[in-house]
# Entry
Amino acid sequence: MKLFVLSLLLFIGNALFAQQSALPCLNKKFSVVAHIVEDSTGAANVSETAIRGAFDVLNGHFAPICASFEVCEFRYIENFQYDTLAFENEERDLTAEYSIQNRINVYFIQVDSAEFICGRASLNGIQFGGDVWILKSCLDSTNNTLSHELGHFFGLVHTFEDFSNQIVNDPNCLNSGDGICDTPADPYNENRDVADYVQDCRFIFEDKDANGAFYDPQVSNIMSYYPCSCEFTEGQLRKMAANYLSATKSNW
# Structure
C-alpha cells in the first residue's frame, strides 16, 4: 500500500512538473507580406523560392511554441530608390507607403551601409507594431538572418547585450545581459573579428569575467553573432510567447 501511494505521489509530482515546465503553445499562424524592392533595372535580386525557404527554417525555430509564419502575399515595389535604402532617413517613408495593417511586413532590400549587417527589425514589434528588413544577399541556407530578426521583432535582444558587464553565473541574470537566465554570458564585441571568438563552432576566446571565470557562451544561439546559430533557448521561447500574449497591438 505504501509503495502504491509513493508511486502515485511520484506520478502526480512528475505530471505537475511537466505541466509547469511545458512551453506555452500559441497555436498561431502569422500572416506575412513579403515586400521585394526592385533595383533600377527592375530586377528583384531575390527569389520567392528563397524567401519561402527562409520561412520554412523560421517555422522550425518557432515550432516549440506552436507559432508559424505564412507568406500570404508577395508585393513588388518598383521604386528603386528604396532598394538601396538610406535606412535611417527613408525606412519610415517606405513603411508608411507600403506596409499592410494586421500583417507582419518583411522588406527585402539592398543597403549601401556598413552599419546594416544583414537585417533590422522593430524591437518588440509584435507588441507595439513595426516592420522587418532583410538584406537580399543574406537570404540563403547558410544563416538564420530571418529567424534572428524575428527574434528581435518578438522582443529578444542579442546574447551579448552589455557584453562588457556580463558575468558568468550572474545571480542578477534577469536584470543584466539579455535578461534571460538560460543564455550564458556572452563577451562578444561587435568591434572585434568573430574569428577571435569561435573556430569551427568551438568557443576559443580566453578572456575572463570580472570574477575571474571563463566565458562559455552558447555559440549556437540564434540571437548571437556566431556563424553556428541554429536554436533559441527555452527562456527565449518563453519570452517571445509572453510578449505576443501581452501584445497591445491586436488583430495579428
